[in-house]
Design brief:
It is a single chain. This protein has 242 residues and is an alpha+beta fold. It has one domain: Distorted Sandwich (Glucose Permease (Domain IIA)). 38% of the residues are buried. The chain is built from 7 helices and 12 strands. Strand 6 and strand 7 form a beta hairpin. The strands form 3 sheets. The protein has an 8-stranded mixed beta sheet with strand order 1-2-4-11-8-7-6-9. Strands 3-12 form a two-stranded antiparallel ribbon. The chain is globular, with a radius of gyration of 17 Å. This is M23ase beta-sheet core domain-containing protein. It comes from Flaviramulus aquimarinus. InterPro entries: Cell_wall_metabolism_enzyme, Dup_hybrid_motif, M23ase_b-sheet_dom.
């Protein structure tokens, strides 16, 4: 039994999906240009505990964008990233996450990569288009694509949110993409849910019947399930030691 099949068998029988995802590649996989070195990525804290961010009007995409861009420039970087399981105040601005019917959702389930509008997005591994949709709620994903993957018989999904409208204009369900193919570009604030340009990248084990959408933010009561169903995307990207 080769090492990938062995790790696949172990992961599924121990119900350790995160271990399986981490085993897919020992090298970093890329959703942005592979020629951008890790030294040009800088982590950013957008949590509710960041006192510096608390001084920013995060209801304004322009002011939040200034905060992010200044952070990138100070570190002589090109991309700011982070946010997995981060509790954020930014979602308070939208009834999509914060209403009286359900528990407030403010825990981020993917990783965000903040960079320039129209930045190309690449397939990190081979996949086919599972679904796509323009999620137009205020504060939502905007144009969104979900890819389906199969490795050693195991099916899982990756979600790409805050894309440009052109990214989903000519997509087809079942369309194939190879690793390193350009699959999309980033949208601007007018289409991406009113955020500074960035990619929301998320791994999903069980898609639960969703099409073109999947929760990217959860509340405390659902965190255990979503943490298991949506492991840390850094297991693929390997931008930081996990």
């Amino acid at each position: 039994m080769d090492i990938i099949k062995f790790l696949t068998f172990e992961a599924m029988h121990s119900n350790d999906f995160s271990k399986f995802i981490n085993s897919i590649s020992s090298d970093s996989l890329h959703v942005l240009d592979a020629f951008v070195p890790k030294s040009k990525y800088v982590s950013i804290d957008l949590s509710e505990t960041n006192q510096e961010l608390n001084a920013v009007d995060i209801s304004s995409s322009a002011k939040l964008g200034n905060f992010v861009n200044q952070h990138i420039r100070k570190q002589n970087a090109r991309v700011a990233f982070g946010g997995y399981l981060e509790t954020r105040s930014i979602y308070k601005r939208s009834h999509h996450f914060n209403n009286k019917v359900q528990e407030e959702r403010n825990i981020h389930l993917g990783i965000d990569l903040w960079c320039d509008v129209e930045t190309p997005i690449y397939a990190p591994i081979n996949g086919i288009v599972h679904s796509f949709q323009n999620n137009t709620n205020y504060g939502d994903y905007g144009p969104t694509m979900i890819l389906k993957h199969q490795i050693s018989g195991i099916e899982f999904f990756t979600l790409y949110g805050h894309l440009s409208l052109l990214s989903i204009q000519d997509l087809r369900i079942g369309q194939s993409f190879k690793q390193a193919d350009i699959i999309a570009t980033l949208g601007n604030t007018s289409v991406n849910g009113d955020y500074p340009p960035h990619l929301h990248f998320q791994i999903i084990k069980n898609i639960q019947g969703f099409k073109g959408d999947y929760p990217g933010v959860c509340g405390k009561q659902d965190l255990k399930f979503f943490k298991e169903n949506c492991p840390n995307p850094n297991l693929l990207l390997k931008l930081l030691s996990s």
